[in-house]
């Protein structure tokens, strides 16, 4: 198990990092520490953990809580449904039935989207179809955290995994901005890659100050 040697220092350092506008709420702090605990249990190195936190920061709109994608029924149907304006994307997401676009909208720490990805989550988490049957279960922090960590480590989201960009799991070397930028391919191509890379560098500095080991 890895983690912070000085976890009490996290609040001090995150509040000076530029993240959360230097004024993290109790909920944001709790959410961050919750994910850090999971990453420690998974023995994630510094760079992996920083990028996982940056991914959650971006995908949850800095709440550090599993959320439902911003939008609404009409937006989800138009964007993701087989009856919407982009049926090829709907098919890519496995949304073969009318209504799937809204039912399987983005949720969780990584905004898991589409019937195919919910089925993937059921498979890797061993939840036996529960997420397909009740997609809102993706908002459970334990489920969302486990999926973020397992799928990023093993490449279940896109076929790309942490070790492809951030060094081996045993690495103690600081990760560069370019590595963080390309690591966005683990989740979603290069969408917002520059922004997230900058956030990952800030999280890496905070964890380093907290003596991640």
TrEMBL record:
This is Glycoside hydrolase family 19 catalytic domain-containing protein. Gene3D superfamilies: 1.10.530.10. The lineage of its organism: Bacteria, Pseudomonadati, Pseudomonadota, Alphaproteobacteria, Acetobacterales. InterPro entries: Lysozyme-like_dom_sf. SUPFAM superfamilies: Lysozyme-like.
